[in-house]
Amino acid sequence: MGILEISGVNKRFGGLKALDDVNLDIAAGTVHAIIGPNGAGKSTLLNCLVGRLEPDSGSVSFNGHSLLGVKAHQINQFGVSRVFQTPEIFGDLTLLENVMIPAFTKRDGAFKLNAWPSVDGESEVRDQALFYLEEVNLAGKAQVRADEMSRGDKRRLELAMCLIQDPKLLLLDEPTAGMSRADTNDTIDLLKKIGEEFNITKVIIEHDMHVVFSLAKKVSVMAQGTVIVEGAPNEIKGDERVQEAYLGGAHL
Amino acid sequence: MLGLNSKDQKLFLVVIVVTLLAPFILNPFPENSELAQFNAGYPDLMQRFAIFGIFAIGFNILFGLTGYLSFGHAAFLGVGSYAGVWMLKLLSMNVVPAIIMSVIFAGLFSLLVGFVSLRRSGIYFSILTLAFAQMSFALAYSVLTPITNGETGLQLALDDPRILGVSQIDGSIPPTNFFGLEMRDGFELALGPWVFTLNFGYYLCAVFVLGAFYLSMRIFNSPFGMMLRAIKTNQTRLPYTGMNPKPYTLAAFVISGMYAGLAGGLMVAMDPLAGAERMQWTASGEVVLMTILGGAGTLLGPLLGAGVIKYFENIFSKINDTILYEWFSFMPDGLQDVFVFLIHPFIGKGWHLTLGIMFMLVVIFLPGGVVEGGQRFMRLFKRGDKGSKSSGDAARSASPAE
Amino acid sequence: MDAIILQVLNGLDKGSAYALIALGLTLIFGTLGVVNFAHGALFMLGAFCAVTLNVILNTSYETIDPDRTDFLGNPLKVETPYIFDWFGPEVGGAMIEWSVPLAILFAIPIMVVIGLSMERGLIKYFYHRPHADQILVTFGLAIVLQEIVKYFYGANPIPTPAPAGLVGSFDFGVLLGFEPGSIIYPNWRLIYFVFAAVIIGALFAFLRFTTFGMVVRAGMADRETVGLLGINIDKRFTIMFAIAACVAGLAGVMYTPINSPNYHMGMDFLVLSFVVVVVGGMGSLAGAVAAGFLLGVLESFASMAQVVDLFPGINQIIIYLVAIIILLTRPRGLMGRKGVMED
Amino acid sequence: MSEIGKAASRRSVLKGSLAAGAAIAMPTIFTSQAKAAFLNDPGAASTVTLGFNVPQSGPYADEGADELRAYLLAVEHLNGEGDGGMMNTFSSKALKGNGILGKKVEYVTGDTQTKSDAARASAKSMIEKDGAIMITGGSSSGVAVAVQALCQEAGVIFMAGLTHSNDTTGKDKKANGFRHFFNSYMSGAALAPVLKNAYGTDRKAYHLTADYNWGYTTEEAVRTSTESMGWETVEAVKTPLAQTDFSSYITPVLQSDADVLVLNHYGGNMVNSLTNAVQFGLRDRVANGKNFEIIVPLYSRLMAKGAGANVKGIFGSTNWHWSLQDEASKAFVQSFGTKYGFPPSQAAHTCYVQALLYADAVERGGSFNPCSVVEALEGFEFDGMGNGPTLYRAEDHQCFKDVLVVKGKENPSSEFDLLEIVEVTPVAQVTYAPDHPQFAGGQLGTCNPGA
Asked: Which residue of B29, B346, D125, D266 sits 20 to 30 Å from the alpha carbon of D306, by its own alpha carbon?
């Protein structure tokens, strides 16, 4: 019984069948990668998991909660965090504030009119935020405006923002997209470190096989809106169908 | 102290001192000098500075923090005013119930308008708020005349019930008061050639503006304020941090609506008449301009912007050619005419032109508004300081976004 | 029935003005990403091009007529326009009478120059500034422009009648088989509608069928990509600004016989045209035109006594009410694109 | 431009009595209780300040400018400069051309913006900052009522400018406020007999009414008086203030069986609705076998100019017109025309008269005290101000005088010669009881000297 169960999910955009009877079972504590060529439906699937899209049919359940029709912020409150393909952070705010915001929502819920106490006074949240900035090696930049940082640093910040919520499930949407090889390796190391320190189930959507094979314990391959193969990284490597999906194009 | 950090404490202290000494600071020129024209230290204008300051501070909580640009905030001020006058008509001339009702009614109305308008963002939100305000104005001006007294404005009458007070005293409507302290009363202080007016009404406004400013500082520094700034910065990330942006923006909207109601309530407490024009889009536009002119998203900006615009409206519009001729009376006749001719288009009935030019100059050369101007000015003096962070606490974020 | 046809005509006529202004406004939004609060002022400037031409044509010299006296009892000064001397009183008189149509030719170069200098001199520095700054600076500009006009022409409306030959009404009723005289409509208003239709049609054709237009449309959809293709999109956008200014100006010129122009007519139209643009959907030209006509027609219907009796005050608020309903049911207006001016 | 103020320039005299106190370095504190018997008492000062609060921005700016010209002329005449204008023809001879009570008249100006709030702010600054003892001016009833109420509360005299709504001296009348201008009721009463003669008693009228207070009272007045002579009102439609294109209100008129259109509009509304009505051929229309007619109850020459040729042949009423041939009007036109080069408007006239009436009342009462002024003005009968014998009625502070019925001129000889006087309706015909239903509901209260 996995922490995240996806069964029979379908999603259409007009005439295009983006997801076709997707079934996935993600076990708690693993790192599960979803790979596949462009247009395979990976991002659509992710969006169905976080409340941005609603599947036409099928069921998605996380830790016993159905995620269908549940709003994005509620899904987050269940313990699902995500990072975006291009880091989405609060550019005008300092790094410290960026990390404090998810800490507050974790502590106070989706809305709390916390208008009287000053941020400076909320020292435990502050300390916590500094701790997680430290975790991602950004402690020295706590007072810098987030927009002023490099892309790699923004990715670290985004991870800190997720980690501070102590999520049960972390969704990573191509976490190394557009990064240099060095940055990519950096990110892999960071994710590994996080994997060691915190017990968080991760789902990684990725193009880069190097990343997938460095991190993932289990891999699902999607093509044309459905999961075609599932298995350990080593099994996937040699699978004919996977190669065909990537190289042979559409005529499966 | 007061739950503020040291920078904000200093700022607040300066604001307190300036507000309390305003009757002196705003009357720098001796009573009978030619420059007395530029004195702004008379009760009505000082009250207006404070009242529109409150209005703009409140607007800034919405616009400066969340970036939601409302074009209909004047409607809340108007609703507050009407509620206030009705309290003065029905209950008593004590301003306290009037101000309380103003805030409550404006809050309720902004809850309604905000709930609907916040379903959209960006310019769609702006137009929704504009539409609500324009509808309120048009209806108040015409079909709602029984409640609002239409064009004339809702005013007191000798036969109002005033169940907790008196309808009239010897054929006059009693003045508004704060537990017996009459708003229009006060002291005049003659110091040599200077005359200063210390008006009770102004000091009541001053207390409220300080309270409003303090509350806005607390909000800016609070987790709530941080959430609002997060909303302005990145709407994509928000829901995935577990935060529900809607109640936050709605809360900011209602808070700023209540500020507007407070301003409306004070307005009628100082001068018991509520005109429909104060709900018109131009009035909403005015508070937007005040905020941007002063510096949106800064603590002090809205106060300064309100002051500048009201100063132009009330002081520049009253300069006429006769006064110009007096100023230049030391010149030979021909030159005097030339100077009057050159300045004439910008004063008196031309005050709008001066205001328009000032809007353009400020926004072209000081993108952060008057506050940024002040910071640049300060930096000239502080050049020795190495700290790149000397910009001061007033500029929390200098870039207002739509 | 004839009452309804008449109100439709009224609505189309009002819609023409809304659509012409909104079209330029949305064009500037779409191309330059600038919120132009001075667009109403451009409409006003166009109208005052007609007034100015009239003044120029009426430039006169004075002669004293000793036989008649003015209101103070002094000998009357008779003014004779110079063009009476140059072209003879008949041709001269006809030129003055036809000053509004002539003003179209007069206004085009002026509005283009105003548009170009506005964009090059001011607006271009605001492309990447927040919308709030754009609003403040263009609003300031609008005030300055209208105060300048007020300085020269005063605050009162100035009558600028249509040529005598175009005054009068056209009998629609006969055309549609109604009783003669039941549906008559003033000629100039029909001309205005046709004029608006031609301008709108020409603008759409220009954007659709010329290379220039295609580049502009591509630029509206994705400015950066088009810029990457090595096309100088900025120059084209500058020209589009001039065109938008020109459309607003011509709308103003043609409007003068319908209502006497005054210095604040631009502000009167500004808010309405913003509502029109937003209801049409940000960045959608067709949406702006559709919304312009829709709101014009609805406004006309709402002003009918039968409707007002049913819903008191509806004529005061109809446009805003419709705007609210449309924006709540269609999040991006009638034809808006996703992501334009939503943040 | 420099028409305003040149004459009054070069003031080197110090302002106010405070100059005397300037020498004393000791702070003096005085509360309002300790002040003089009334607010802004000029005391021993050599000058007195009046506040001219007129629209300088917005649609009525030109009318405001004309009011201001008239006030400056009045100040000149009061101070003994210029040709004296109507001071020479005024039946009261209290004014001597040496200012008011020997004090030179000075003035401050402000912008009402034709908004109640702005007008009150401007008036307040005149009272609080400049020490104005009297406020006058304005070009709309909303502003007049708002400023009048303010002056009552503050304790200064308000001499209304152009305000035509019944309410100014009806339900919103105030002891400290006075109106020389005529009102809606008078327009209706004066117009009705003329309309009867011109158009007969069997008419069907269609009203378009500006949807605000002044519109309502005007519609009511004109309806009542025309209905009482046999006209039928087929429809009365309210039009939004912000309306610029009236086509959708005009076309239903074409559909109705009305043969008269009454435009209860003023200012820009009037210009546009009249222009539109003529555009739709209403003037050439024949309905019920009669020529279709348009009526504009309140005419203003400045606005008639905006409507251009459309006013030709259209009836309306006005408070005063420069073409009147009585000595007073001639003197005023001469004086104004010589100074500014064009004839004065009715707004200029009423403002000039109000300024003189105030000064005269102060002279006669011997004090600037508002209560003394009120006493001097109440029931005051005068002549020689261009409207024939006039009474300032004590019960409501409204002037009763002849009303002019005018018609747009067919062949104007100049840009000012747009209206011709059809009839001077005698005052008896437009007089009403103070408790007339159209004016009921208000109380004057008592005069407030402000201290």
From this structure: B346
